[in-house]
Design goal:
Order of helices and strands: HHEEHHEE
Structural class: alpha+beta
Radius of gyration: 12 Å
Helix content: 40-55%
Number of helices: 4
Shape: globular
Largest sheet: 4 strands, antiparallel
Strand content: 25-35%
Oligomer: single chain
Number of domains: 1
Strand order of the largest sheet: 1-2-4-3
Length: 101
Amino acid sequence: MEESIGRFLGEVIARRMVEKFGNDIEGLKNSLDYLFSWERDFKLEVEGNTVISSGLCPIKRFYPRYCEKGCLAFAEKFAEQFKAKVERVSIDPCTFKFTLE
């Protein structure tokens, strides 16, 4: 169930972000910044065609099952809208690496 929710939200939100910021590397960076800047210690790094987002997300603490399954599903569907691949680098801090193809 968490994966289904994550995929649904990832696709819907990413479509809106593409409309707002575009689907290039800068659009991906701006979208992630717009969506997750509320996370404690949030930071973004851009290296070539890769964006690494990292922060201390409270979802792991309050809903660990969603963190494990739903967050990755969200990130995968989100990345698709930017024609990117994503991998989870770590859970604490929550770190994802997006690479545009």
